[in-house]
Amino acid sequence: xxxxxxxxxxxxxxxxxxxxxxxxxxxxxxxxxxxxxxxxxxxxxxxxxxxxxxxxxxxxxxxxxxxxxxxxxxxxxxxxxxxxxxxxxxxxxxxxxxxxxxxxxxxxxxxxxxxxxxxxxxxxxxxxxxxxxxxxxxxxxxxxxxxxxxxxxxxxxxxxxxxxxxxxxxxxxxxxxxxxxxxxxxxxxxxxxxxxxxxxxxxxxxxxxxxxxxxxxxxxxxxxxxxxxxxxxxxxxxxxxxxxxxxxxxxxxxxxxxxxxxxxxxxxxxxxxxx
Length: 275
Ligand code: PAF
What we know:
Layout: E1 2-4, H1 7-14, E2 20-25, H2 31-43, E3 46-51, H3 71-78, E4 84-86, H4 90-93, H5 112-115, H6 119-134, E5 138-142, H7 146-158, E6 164-168, H8 188-209, H9 215-228, E7 232-240, E8 253-262, E9 265-274
The structure holds pantoate.
Pantoate binds near residues 24, 25 and 126.
């Protein structure tokens, strides 16, 4: 496995590769990331993992500075799985002040986008830059960041990028909590409580499968149940898997999504539901 820090080195290393499978990450790798890399391994002869904490996707009061940076440990976890780890400096990814951005589709202003203005513009812009640098045939993203995956899929279609986007199922802890680098911000008591988010969404998914059709009431009740236990709820929503829009009558492929804060930690989760 080769660890590469500069764009020039990356381009030289990948020049003769024919099937590159790419996993973009911000590092601090956990089993969820490793699963994405395993999927990439099965899809390409050369697997590239990028590790870059992208300043453009963090708001001014978010956790950019404290986001865990654990490059050495990450590289150890990738030994034998990845061929190339690309860990550029901010100055490599942003050689000059970024004044050109990817304007994401309108859905980027809803759900997480309502609470993290500019976030998906930052994500789409850095992912496009990474795609330009790595030029993969396949790229793997986790469904845990469901809205991100939907926006990247739209970007790839609308910008005619010749890249197959693979969405991987969310990896979960034994109690059901979705794996996330941010879980480590949780105190012991918060970690115990955190599972309530996935339990709530799972309960909503079951209710939908059981025939409940009053989506607004389900969303309201789930939000209230979380709030009663001390969560600060940003949103609980039932949307269409297709485009994350509000589902129309008879829509059968749904996704239940939420974002909520427990103490200082913001958690997101989702479950797909096929009726
Ligand atoms: O999901 C992430 O880790 C990031 O948003 C990504 C896709 C690596 C872009 O910085």
